[in-house]
């Protein structure tokens, strides 16, 4: 499962890092760590001091969590640091983890991470809705909020996801190359959540 997140500015940034170690999956599920990785992807590199200013947490806390993220390959030290003020950067533009695993420990950790990410999505969407009144009419009318109920096979659902990926991929390079952004372009988060709706019966009983 890929986490939808803003790609980091920077040259030759790998598209994604895949977590399969249950310890890494559990470590990344921490709200502050997810926030730090997201900020590094959109605004990095930066130091723990800058991270504290962006998150409202202490420098010591941010430094600790950045080191944990580095342990599992999600962030790394960036060049140009002096003394303790070393900058950090994300190692990839997206984070992925297994949708399914025969290993119970991996499956449980992956599901817990997915739940944590879903909660984070909800918080971000709620905040966006609360601040929507500040947007121009043009942006308010362009934003999308809705759902669709489709009857699909697993293969069709997977194929639909691949087609959506193909539609979005041409815009990804704009994150690392500002010259590709047309006038008026702003960062937009697009969430993709498709799940089997078990509250709706597959067929009506006669």
Report on this structure.
The chain is mainly alpha-helical and 206 residues long. It has a single domain, classed as Orthogonal Bundle (Arc Repressor Mutant, subunit A). Helix content is 47%, strand content 7%. The protein contains seven helices and five strands, in the order ββααααβββααα. Strands 1-5-2 form a three-stranded mixed sheet, with no helix packed on it. Helix 1 packs parallel to helix 5 (104-130) and helix 3 crosses helix 4 (59-71). The longest helix has 27 residues, at 104-130. It is globular.
| Biggest β-sheet: strands ordered side by side in the sheet | 1-5-2
How does the overall form come out from the CA principal axes?
globular
Mean pLDDT: 90
Fraction in beta strands: 5-15%
CATH homologous superfamily (4th level) name: Winged helix-like DNA-binding domain superfamily/Winged helix DNA-binding domain
CA-to-CA gap between the ends? 38 Å
Q: What CATH first level would be assigned?
A: Mainly Alpha
Structural class: mainly alpha
Estimated radius of gyration: 19 Å
Described by strand count, sense and barrel closure, the largest sheet is: 3 strands, mixed
Oligomer: single chain
Give a count of the beta strands, DSSP E runs of length 2 or more.
5
* Unreliable stretches: 4-11
Please write the string of helix (H) and strand (E) elements: EEHHHHEEEHHH
Helix content: 40-55%
CATH architecture: Orthogonal Bundle
Helix run count? 7
CATH topology: the name is Arc Repressor Mutant, subunit A
InterPro entries: ArsR-like_HTH (IPR011991), WH-like_DNA-bd_sf (IPR036388), WH_DNA-bd_sf (IPR036390)
Pfam families: HTH_20
Protein name: Helix-turn-helix domain-containing protein
